[in-house]
Amino acid sequence: MSQILAANLAQINPKFVVEILGLPWPAYLAAQRASQIPIMTAGWLEDIHDPNDWYQPYTVGTYGSRQNLPADLKAQFNTLLNQARL
After folding, report:
1. Closest Cα to residue 3, out of 41, 50, 30?
2. What's the pLDDT score for residue 27?
3. How many CB atoms neighbour CB 52 within 10 A?
4. How many Å is the Cα radius of gyration of the chain?
5. How far apart are the first and last CA of the chain?
6. Does the global pTM surpass 0.85?
7. CB-based burial of residue 60 (10 Å sphere; 0-12 exposed, 13-18 middle, 19+ buried)?
8. Res 61: pLDDT
9. How far apart are CA 34 and CA 48, in angstroms?
10. Cα–Cα distance, 77 to 71 (Å, whole number)
11. Distance CA 31, CA 42 (A)
12. Beta carbons of 77 and 65 less than 8 angstroms apart
């Protein structure tokens, strides 16, 4: 997923550079708690086959909060998620 994101961003603008970094779990947790990870991929497995099961946790749920997404961005995601559920 990270490689796809990096490639797509580079297609948009070659100045967008994504560094993909794998960390040992203790280092990852420390960096996450110190708000040093701008985008993360970890910790979620599908429990029900529903797109909301993926979007909600990473945007407005647990992982959105752990990524320190700005409140206005989370509000926008929340609006879109609520519209999608109708």
Report:
1. 41
2. 93
3. 11
4. 14
5. 28
6. no
7. buried
8. 84
9. 31
10. 10
11. 13
12. no
Q: With DSSP H G I counted as helix, E B as strand and the rest as coil, what are the percentages for the chain, rounded to 5?
A: 55, 0, 45
Token duo for residue 65: 């909060």
Lookup: tokens for 66: 């752990």
pLDDT of residue 44: 67
Alpha-carbon dihedral angle through residues 33, 30, 3, 67, given to the nearest 10 degrees: 0
Lookup: tokens for 52: 């909301």
Task: Dig out the tokens for 34 from the structure.
Answer: 């110190």
Return d(Cα 18, Cα 5) in angstroms, integer.
8
Residues of the chain with pLDDT under 70: 41-44, 86
